[in-house]
Write a structure and sequence with these properties.
Number of strands: 12
Mean pLDDT: 93
CATH architecture: Alpha-Beta Barrel
Helix content: 25-40%
Number of helices: 11
CATH superfamily: Aldolase class I
Oligomer: single chain
Radius of gyration: 16 Å
CATH topology: TIM Barrel
Largest sheet: 8 strands, parallel, barrel
Strand content: 25-35%
Structural class: alpha/beta
Order of helices and strands: EEEHEHHEHEHHEEEHEHEHEHH
Low-confidence stretches: none
Distance between the termini: 8 Å
Strand order of the largest sheet: 1-4-5-6-7-10-11-12
Length: 242
């Protein structure tokens, strides 16, 4: 299973939000470029970077910073992959993002506009994933500011059928809490999509949590706050998962 190191961008810095609440944030001590460089130097080969300002605004707001992060990671670790998202609602915004990073993560637009996901995935084969953020089994939209009506499992099936190369499945109630992943939700999603590339996020705070995600059959785990606090050391985590 792949350890995926997460960096959320807000106001030019790296932060983690507690349960997606912009008023409850943990600021990283390091500049986001240096933080990304440190993760890459520790052996992380996939970084998950989200433009929180863009998610809230509905359009990317920090593309230049994303580009600097990508350059730093590639200088440090050739072959590392940078996936990024936040506010991707238009084809031109996806194109601008993919000029800087390797993969784009759609969210609200993919969920509410199936044609947008299909055409974007066709234009960029294998480079378009979807962040499926769930609150009580329903999709959290627009930077988690509202909740949709669709059932999460049914929606996941549709997103994969429409071309998502991977799904990042997040329990928003766990995100930023270090309280452990929602294993029941993860297992239900894996049972519904046995062959899809699934990545877990939300609440992962220990090596035991990472093993639980691996045992649920997931291809990767996104870890953010636990890396900032030192609860998980990336090199130790990768050794434990090897």
């Amino acid at each position: 299973m792949e350890l995926i190191c997460a960096i959320d961008l807000l106001d030019g810095g790296a932060v983690r939000l507690v349960q997606g609440d912009y008023e409850r944030r943990v600021d990283a001590a390091e500049d986001p470029v240096e933080l990304a460089r440190r993760f890459a130097a520790a052996g992380c080969r996939r970084l998950h970077v989200i433009d929180l300002a863009g998610a809230r605004a509905g359009r990317p707001m920090q593309l230049d910073l994303l580009g600097r992060i990508a350059d730093a990671v590639r200088e440090t670790a050739g072959g590392a992959v940078i996936e990024a998202g936040g506010g991707l609602r238009r084809r031109e915004d996806v194109a601008a993002l993919l000029d800087r990073v390797d993969e784009a993560l759609l969210g609200t637009a993919a969920i509410e506009d199936p044609a947008f996901l299909r055409t974007t995935a066709e234009a960029y084969p294998g480079r378009v994933g979807v962040s499926l953020d769930l609150r009580d089994g329903r999709p959290a939209l627009d930077g988690w500011l509202r909740v949709g009506e669709a059932d999460g499992v049914d929606l996941a099936r549709r997103l994969v059928a429409d071309g998502a190369s991977r799904l990042i499945v997040t329990d928003t109630a766990r995100d930023g809490t270090l309280s452990g992943p929602n294993v029941e939700m993860l297992e239900r999603m894996r049972a519904a999509l046995p062959s899809a590339t699934l990545v877990a996020a939300g609440g992962i705070g220990s090596l035991a949590d990472l093993r639980a995600v691996r045992d649920a059959g997931y291809d990767g785990a996104v870890v953010g706050l636990a890396l900032l606090t030192g609860a998980i050391d990336p090199a130790e985590a990768m050794a434990a998962l090897a």
